[in-house]
Amino acid sequence: MDQLTTFFSMGSYGAYVWPSYLLTAAVMLSLLLTTLQRLRRNQAELAELESLKTVDKQQELQEKAVRS
């Protein structure tokens, strides 16, 4: 148990080291979550744009059929 306490105290620098690890983990987690949120938003926007493109092509084909 004494070895574990010594490890966590890190030669009296533990009060600085462990909070910095926690802060780094929190920042990295927030970056991951933000990136995933943006990815989902961009995928939804892409799907919407692709569906609009499909609708435009269908309308274009219908207009060509009417002209013929």
Automatic annotation (TrEMBL):
<keyword id="KW-0201">Cytochrome c-type biogenesis</keyword>
<comment type="similarity">
    <text>Belongs to the CcmD/CycX/HelD family.</text>
</comment>
<comment type="function">
    <text>Required for the export of heme to the periplasm for the biogenesis of c-type cytochromes.</text>
</comment>
<dbReference type="InterPro" id="IPR007078">
    <property type="entry name" value="Haem_export_protD_CcmD"/>
</dbReference>
<keyword id="KW-0813">Transport</keyword>
<keyword id="KW-1133">Transmembrane helix</keyword>
<protein>
    <recommendedName>
        <fullName>Heme exporter protein D</fullName>
    </recommendedName>
</protein>
<keyword id="KW-0997">Cell inner membrane</keyword>
<keyword id="KW-0812">Transmembrane</keyword>
<keyword id="KW-1003">Cell membrane</keyword>
<feature type="transmembrane region" description="Helical">
    <location>
        <begin position="16"/>
        <end position="36"/>
    </location>
</feature>
<dbReference type="Pfam" id="PF04995">
    <property type="entry name" value="CcmD"/>
</dbReference>
<keyword id="KW-0472">Membrane</keyword>
